[in-house]
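Chain A, query sequence.
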Amino acid sequence: VQTLGFNDKKYSHLIAFRLNDHFKSDVQVNFYKKDQTFDSVFISCKSMTQESYKGYGHICKSTVNSYCKKWNFDHNMQYCLKAFAGEFAVGGSKVIYFDNSFMTQYRELILKNFREKITEVFDDLFLGKQFGKIPNFFTVKVGDILFVCEMKDVLEYARGSGDVYFGQRTINQNLIIGNVKMTANRKSRNIQFKMYYKEMLRNLKHKA
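Chain A, predicted structure.
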């Protein structure tokens, strides 16, 4: 109770339960007062292994169609992102990156769309505002230690400078949006978003 910023003397007990996958929050915690009214907190729960060098962690994964519908991306955006996700072959290969010659005509379009929609994209990835039960806290479990951060701080860190660009490498480039990396899971033909949790925890005020 104290870790989440509540006065433990104000509450008699709490009940926590797992939410379904429809929400960005994984857990809802109800803090009950003596009169049986309660205050609710919603938590997004992540984990990483202690052995992970950078603590590369999952944020969100879905189909190209789903993201394009939510973010109102046009047919051209949908087409090039499907190629990136491996939904169809380009030059005989289903593994292409943004430095591939096929992407040349789409690169500026991709940057333009993500720069214009960056607030909407991050709100969707981290908060899922369209579903309700928006997370107040973001936790990362490392071994037996649970790191707790306020979601507003995580969202600010994730957005970073707000810059959108293609990866630092000259080959096999993914898309970088602030401090978040967009990659392709070609086995499932999905787009996924990841972030380095270790670096985030170093930069944020967290409680463990």
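The chain has a mean pLDDT of 90. The first strand starts at residue 13 and ends at 18.
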